[in-house]
Design brief:
mainly alpha; elongated
C-alpha cells in the first residue's frame, strides 16, 4: 500500500510519488484502484491541505493560501516534467543501440505504453491542470495540460533524438523488401500509425498547412520516404 508522508512539501513526498509512478511507468505494473486513489488524493492534497494561520507578517490568510498552493502546483509540474524527461531520454538511449526490425518493434511497443501513461499521469495531475495551468494560460498560451506536455516531451527528448536513426532503418527495411527480401510488413504499418498518432499541440515548428495534426508524420516520415523512393527509382 502506498503511504505518503503528511508533509506535502518534503522531499520524501516526491520520493514516494516517484516510486509509485515507477511501478506503472518503468516496471509496467497495473495500477490498482486503491493505488490510483492514493496518488490522486496525495496530489490533490497539495492544494487543499491545512494552510498556516495568518500572522502579523502575513495577515491575508487567503492570499497566503493561494501563493502556497501555486508554489506547490509549480513544484509538482516541474517535477513531473523532469521525471518524464529522464524516462524518455533513457528509452531513447536504449533505442539508439537497436537496428532493423528490433528497433521498430521497440519504438512501437514503447509508444503504445506511453499513450497509456500520458493519459494516466494527466488524470492523476488533473488538479494541477485546474488550479495552476488554467491560470497560467491566461498570460501565456505556451502553458498546456500535463497530458499534452508529456506528449511534447516524448517528441523533444525521445523522438527527435532517434528520428534520423529510426527513419534510416525503416527506409532500409522498405528497400530490402523491394529488392525481394522478407520483412515484417506489419511493423511498417504500425510505425506509420504511431507517427500519425504523435501529434503534440502548441508546437509551431510542427505545423503543416491544412494537415496540422500530421506534422510529425510528414516532416519525419513522409518526406524522407518520398526522397528515398525517388533515389531508389533513379538507381534502377
Amino acid at each position: 500500500m502506498i503511504k505518503f508522508p503528511d508533509d506535502v512539501d518534503s522531499d520524501e513526498f516526491l520520493e514516494v510519488l516517484q516510486q509509485a509512478l515507477d511501478a506503472a511507468v518503468v516496471k509496467r505494473h497495473s495500477m490498482s484502484r486503491a493505488e490510483y486513489t492514493a496518488i490522486f488524493t496525495a496530489i490533490y492534497r497539495c492544494q487543499c491541505c491545512a494552510q498556516p494561520k495568518p500572522t502579523k507578517m502575513a495577515p491575508d490568510a487567503k492570499s497566503t493560501s493561494i501563493q502556497l498552493s501555486s508554489h506547490r502546483d509549480r513544484r509538482l509540474y516541474d517535477w513531473i516534467i523532469d521525471y518524464i524527461i529522464q524516462v524518455t531520454s533513457e528509452i531513447g538511449a536504449r533505442m539508439m543501440q537497436l537496428s532493423g526490425e528490433e528497433l521498430l518493434t521497440s519504438y512501437i511497443d514503447e509508444w503504445e505504453h506511453f499513450q497509456l501513461i500520458h493519459m494516466l499521469v494527466g488524470r492523476l495531475f488533473h488538479s494541477v491542470d485546474q488550479n495552476w495551468i488554467e491560470s497560467k494560460r491566461l498570460y501565456s498560451p505556451s502553458y498546456t495540460t500535463v497530458s499534452n506536455t508529456l506528449i511534447q516531451l516524448w517528441y523533444v527528448y525521445l523522438f527527435q533524438h532517434i528520428s534520423i536513426h529510426l527513419m534510416a532503418n525503416t527506409i532500409q527495411l522498405v528497400r530490402q523488401e523491394r529488392d525481394g527480401g522478407i520483412i515484417d510488413g506489419l511493423l511498417i504499418v504500425k510505425l506509420y500509425k504511431a507517427l500519425v498518432e504523435l501529434a503534440p499541440k502548441d508546437m509551431d515548428g510542427l505545423r503543416v498547412p491544412f494537415r496540422e495534426d500530421l506534422g510529425v508524420y510528414i516532416r519525419h516520415y513522409e518526406i524522407p520516404y518520398i526522397v528515398a523512393a525517388i533515389a531508389y527509382i533513379d538507381q534502377r
